[in-house]
From TrEMBL:
Superkingdom of origin organism: Bacteria
Species of the source: Micromonospora orduensis
Protein's UniProt name: Levansucrase
Amino acid sequence: MADGHDGDGAGAEAYLTATGERLRADGCDVTIEDWGGTPVLIGHRGDFKMRWMATKLHLFTIAAPATRVTAASLETFSTSAMDYVLARKGQLRGLQNGVAVFPALVGTEIEPAAAAWAQEKQRLRFAALARPVAVDARTGAAAAFRGNPSLGFIYAAHLRNKLNAYFPVA
């Protein structure tokens, strides 16, 4: 597949398998879908908390292998992941529901600009957010925004905990 989504062999596959196990252990529904010839790991869970002003957050983790992760390929994949999530759960967004996604590319070559782009900030749409992840399959290093944003702050601790559980800092 173009933009570096053509896989990288055993390293990315092993990382994605372990990620699927971490998602299942946390109670996520996990599937593998074919996105243009690339197997994509998709995990989903929904959580409701009163402290979130009585809202439900649908959290998706969408991860795919990539030989080389660039800022452009991660941005493109993040947009595709957000579009996918909004097509599945977007009708629920609004006052009582939110949607979040961790779009992750797992590769053996991570450009520094890709890691920097992932760590910069979360990406927002109406009642939806994305925290892109660039994973180095060789080291397990996962670059992502793990901070506290001004918009969507009520979910920040939850998202950081899930991000750390699914994509541990190496």
